[in-house]
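Supplementary Note 3. Input sequence used for the single-chain structure prediction.
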Amino acid sequence: MADQFYGLTDTGKERSNNEDAFIARQSPDGRFIIACVIDGVGGYKGGEVAAALAREAILQRLAQPSGEIIPMLLDSFNQANQSILAGKKEVKEHDSMACVATLALADTEKNQFYYVHVGDTRLYLLRDRSLVKITHDQSFVGFLEDSGRLDEKAAMAHPKRNEINKALGFEINLSGDTDYVETGQSPFLPGDMLLLCSDGLTDMVPAGEISDILNNNDGLKDKCHDLVAAANHNGGKDNITVALVKNAKQASSHEATRPVSGQKKTELKAANEPAITNVPLTAERGAAKVKGNIPVLIFALMALIFLCTTIWQYIQRQKATQPGATPAQTDTPVIKPANAQEAKLQATINGLKGNVLLLVDTAFKSPVKISRAIVIDKDSLFIKTKGNVQLLCDSGYTGAAISLTPKCKLVMLDSLAITGFKTGVVAYNTALLLKNMRFTNCGTTVQNRFTAQGKYTNGGVPANVFKVDSIPVTPHKQK
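The predicted structure, written as discrete structure tokens, is reproduced below.
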């Protein structure tokens, strides 16, 4: 497990105490790497106590991992929440204490990571030198930033940046509210790195600088110290905590087979084919010759049948177009079976236990041909794209690329390419947010439908729901 995880916390330059806590260790059974960053809130000492209580509760629950992973992580958050609520009752001065936290469990053997998150601590994934923000800040400013209404610089300087609306210690029972805690899982490939951090880092250091530090050649310990140093260099206005986890396995590679030259092909063919000997022209050989022509005769007969069928269908269509002609009944059109890529994408969405899905072009080879709409039937879903992932309309298909059901309350699509569809996305009741989407050769980009059966309806259609950037789309080059 050498250099696969490391954590570090620092008071910063303006605080006198540290209300942050972290976990960076291997699980007792050796199966997982546990990483967690906790940021206490609630005033002097109170936040520090809340963070310590949460850390202890999480470690106790994960001391003996059991059951499904996401429910286990949710249970650890619920136990932390209960521990903080109990502590608030014991000490009056701590009655406003709470904490925000992000917890990740990395299974490097199966190349997967799982996470739960509440508040404004963050989880990032570094893959192929690109840094992707996985979690969403559960605050008003975080929502504005994630939806593209604020850029990173404006969000970092916003006066309400640190006003959160969710935390451990705010709610009485988290086990009965699955929407309160953000959860998810994603591939954790060889070479990938997870960064968990408090807002003491992200309020001080922009994502580009964080990415540069993570991409240097230093070990995890040095990277952590460099991140903390960068935050302090830029002001160090809050406690700074970081935890890193790396999948240190080597990516498997296969040596490509060299093409065989023309001369070698001839030699290889000659070596593998039986020798041809002279056969006398006898009646037996003549019979063999007739037998060899049977496939040709069968092919000719099939071609004749196909030609006759085509002519008959043409005549029937001509009759159907005559005035007063009765339309001919046709069979139900044959629906093409879903190809492996689109079936995999639909199954991934249907089986997702959290509300964040990261699509990477290493898992979904672009383009993904779509012969039926990808259906989203979740209360909320955020689809992020890393690399060139393109949905391409299959030949003969005239429907939408993505269809949201009326059940959806909020769906965000980020950096996905949709090409060649009659309709890009079908949504209901304005449940859709788009960020850096690319639509090419689509008749209708977004079709929004409103449903309110049997109820009084008020309101109106806004003049502008989406806006189009002035920067033209640059097509991705296919590899």
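DSSP finds ten helices and 22 strands in the chain. The CA atoms of residues 39 and 415 lie 31 Å apart.
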